[in-house]
Amino acid sequence: MSRPKVFVARRIPDEGLNRIAAAADVDVWPDRLPPSSDVLRERVADCEGLVSLLTDRVSAALLAAAPRLRVVSNFAVGFNNVDVPACTAHGVCVGNTPGVLTDATADIAVTLLLAATRRLGECTTDAKQGRWLTWEPLGWLGQDLAGRTLGIVGMGRIGFATAKRLHHGWGMKVLYTARTPKPDADRKLGAQHVELNTLLAESDFVSVHADLNQTTKGLFGAEQFRRMKPSAVFVNTSRGPLVDQPALAAALRAGTIFAAGLDVTEPEPLPADHELFTLPNCVIAPHVASATVGTRDAMARLCAENLLAGLRGDPLPHWVNPEAAGNRRA
Ligand code: GLV
């Protein structure tokens, strides 16, 4: 029996790549930058499997041009780069990598929160560039953290892990929004399910962990920043388009809020001359929440397991569209 053909849209850790290569003929995109959508479409045209990254758009057009494709294994927990309804309509299974990057992502949310709150970006730049002249009683003053109020927007796995760190570590009171109340968060963290406007008005720190979808796109605009405290710190580790960036930049410039820490932006990469980079009270990381050796290995393992299950015709261990089961491509 011939081996299935798989396109892997970037080099991923050997933990996953070797497992895939043991069962399939693998074509790995060798460049640091992603393939263009035309090239992606060409390379996937005769493949049964695709390992995509969050930078690869898996569109209806790609699916139509890849009649043998049976499984898309996304090397990410988020899958807004994949047209899932189109995959389901074509009988193509979609997998993702939840769970294994929860801790690493919560760590980055806390890192950004601390860095923005204590003005670490400004401090290190000033120190390096000769503006550290003496110990200044009024220099680089940030905000306190202990015992303050944290607002988690989207109390899923990562929101919970972030709240757990800040509640147990800094004694923060936790407010959250979610489609439904989360009894675990209420019980273990004393968290309170509230409306978004209440969360914005009462929180000292607002950390965003919601999925990107039609309801959450542009969720944070001028009005939401106006509702926050002038001392508030805003953190986003979910997806850039949840935030209206010009509104965020205006709020940071005007002091409507104190600071922001972002691991995600729109677009990515953010151009080096973007105005957010010019604001001293904005700390920006290049979408690195899952970037630890152990986490990326675990993501690669899950990604391979999803892909290989899809090729065998088995249920995917982390299956985004189990509703495709009824019409899977053979
Ligand atoms: C990263 O942003 C992911 O969705 O895994």
Report what the structure shows.
The chain contains 13 helices and twelve strands. The protein is globular. Helix 1 packs parallel to helix 13 (293-312) and helix 5 crosses helix 7 (157-170). The chain folds into two domains: 5-100 and 293-327, 3-Layer(aba) Sandwich (Rossmann fold); 102-284, 3-Layer(aba) Sandwich (Rossmann fold), CATH 3.40.50. With 330 residues, the chain is α/β, with parallel strands linked by helices. Strand 11, helix 12 and strand 12 (282-284) form a beta-alpha-beta unit. The strands form two sheets. Strands 8-7-6-9-10-11-12 form a seven-stranded parallel sheet, sandwiched between helices. The protein has a five-stranded parallel sheet with strand order 2-1-3-4-5, with helices on both faces. Bound molecules: glyoxylic acid (GLV). Glyoxylic acid is lined by residues 54, 76-78, 101, 289-290.
